[in-house]
Amino acid sequence: MSVKGILAAAAVVIASLVSAGVTQPAFAAGGAPGSIDTSFGHNGTVITDLRLTAAGQAKLGTPRAVIVLGNGDILVGGDTGVVRLLPTGSLDTTFGSGGFAPVGFPGEPTGIPNLTVQPDGKILWLGSTPNTSGGGNLTDFALERFTANGTPDQTFGRKGLVTKDIPTGGEGFEAFNAAVIQPDGKIVAAGFVGTTGRTGHSNVVLVRYNPGGTADTSFGTGGTVMGGPGGAVALGLDAAGDIFTLPGEEEFSPAGVRDASVTATPITTSTPSSLGNGVSGAFAFLPTGQTLAGGLVGNPADVHDTDAQVQRLNADGTVDPAFASPPIDYNGIEGGIGDSGVDSLAVQRDGKILIGGSVGLARVNPDGTLDTTFGNGGAELAVPATLPVVLANAALLAVLPTGEFLAIGAGTNPTTGSIELILTRYFQ
User: How deeply is 271 buried, as exposed, middle or buried, from its count of CB atoms within 10 A (0-12, 13-18, 19+)?
Assistant: First the structure.
């Protein structure tokens, strides 16, 4: 059976750990693997009321991507901007406007955004924005770069903003889903361009930009390369500068030429897919060049039940039979996509893989077997049920410099109607 036949729509996020070479924050001395660190916030959880912008938009929206900086600060990218949190989980009010840096595109951003941090600390938000240039497309590719303190980077594009439109000949959608920074500072962004209707289809798109946001015309045609069917939600680079995309398992030369096959090679730089990227199955690179894929599988014993599953894939997209990939039931929870799927993944330093669903957490060993030392035999419920919010999602995962990890989500306060960001810290 093919991987796409096994996996249903789900999102995979591998939290990036960016080293800044600074002193790491101190945390509590340890607890049972998967147990909540009650020294964090209030009994292990911090809830931040993000309220609304002056235009009535939800600040941040759904958390889509997370990057933990070397000093323990936490960047969370969402539908409408970026939030920076201190290691304590509270908003860093020195960042952007009171801790929030909104994107500056006209209208409300669309699509499923992602984040990348440059070596100089600048932050790249990428996604899509409503089309304002005509030509029939509904959305355009969009990038915004912020300085390390959350202000638009005036040296990038037009006041920090870059958009791109590829005519599709109909009502089309365009979105960036991932980006990587090359050693020379150039930016490779990947996503998809697609059309709607009965003849609708989509293709992988790569665009390379110079450090200032202009198109790198030495790449592909005028800076753009069209790949195969589908879309790219995760990107990787090897030491030679070759570019790899997922989930289509494609490889491109540094000049943008599509290779006939994919090379099994170590990946030196990568950006994983973001939460809810909309592609059937979602993927992230391992340093070995293999990938992880998480999603849903049916339960043969119960047609009404689905389980979570993570698979390890070889560079050519075939399933690695050495990885166990057991179906995972989050402590007996029955249900569909909203209950039993894989929303995010995070790889610990010891190679163990954390798995997050909207209501559950699990962990597998490096060989894919369930880690029975974690939680309740390898799985447990995510986020305390006593929280005073209605959870929309709860398991965007981030491994901290200390080895502990965060489960990050957003919910609606039933009393005020405000969107609230929720962080819970767990022992590894």
Answer: buried
